[in-house]
Amino acid sequence: MDEFFQPIHTYQVCNVMTANQNNWLRTSWIQRHGAHRVYAEIRFTLRDCNSMPGVLGTCKETFNLYYLQSDRDLGSTTRESQFVKIDTIAADESFTNVDLGVRRLKLNTEVRGVGPLTKRGFYLAFQDIGACIAVVSVRVYYKKCPAMVRNLAAFSGAVTGADSSSLVEVRGECVAHSEERDTPKMYCSAEGEWLVPIGKCVCSAGYEERKVACS
């Protein structure tokens, strides 16, 4: 059960008595749908090694996250050596025998960026090296700047760039009955926010500006 006493389904492993563990869990192929960078939100539980007697030399409290890009679903032909490491992930909270006694496990949530992505899709993989861990859920998403009208220019929604510092330039289109004064542009940040508005459109002769339109 989770911290709200709700039943949960998990992928779990707890081979903490044997050294040199190398257990892998891989997702199915995920299409990127034009995203240059995605984010993986992982919810998991992890047991405190100190709460288990006789495992201090073999028990771990971390796991590794990897990814592999491909232009098609590779099925079961992927190999460990093909994957690129994203990060080693540790738990902010681990559970003990006391938590087990009341059937209450502490959920951790970690988010990691994955990219830059250049192929049609990718896999995520989790490597266990000797932890007592349960993966509860994995959510993969990307960020984009929403469509909007600013300075009488319409900007279509834009997917964010490939890294955390990239800005994607987007040119706006003047709304009906307006014309460019200076070329309207904005930049889509990695967090999905519009920045640095430049230029504008003005209403054509015989029309006046009313909020985001000329009438």
UniProtKB/TrEMBL annotation:
Residues 1-150 form the Eph LBD domain. GO terms for cellular component: dendrite; plasma membrane. Transmembrane segments: none annotated. The keyword Nucleotide-binding applies. Its main location: membrane. It comes from the Eukaryota. It is a single-pass membrane protein. It is found in: Membrane. GO terms for molecular function: ATP binding; transmembrane-ephrin receptor activity. Its EC number is 2.7.10.1. Coiled coil: none annotated. Keywords: ATP-binding, Glycoprotein, Kinase, Membrane, Nucleotide-binding, Receptor, Signal, Transferase, Transmembrane, Transmembrane helix, Tyrosine-protein kinase. It is an enzyme of class 2 (transferase). One of its GO terms (biological process) is axon guidance. Gene3D superfamilies: ephrin a2 ectodomain, Galactose-binding domain-like. InterPro entries: Ephrin_rcpt_lig-bd_dom, Ephrin_rcpt_TKs, Galactose-bd-like_sf, Tyr_kinase_rcpt_V_CS. This is receptor protein-tyrosine kinase. The gene is EPHA8.
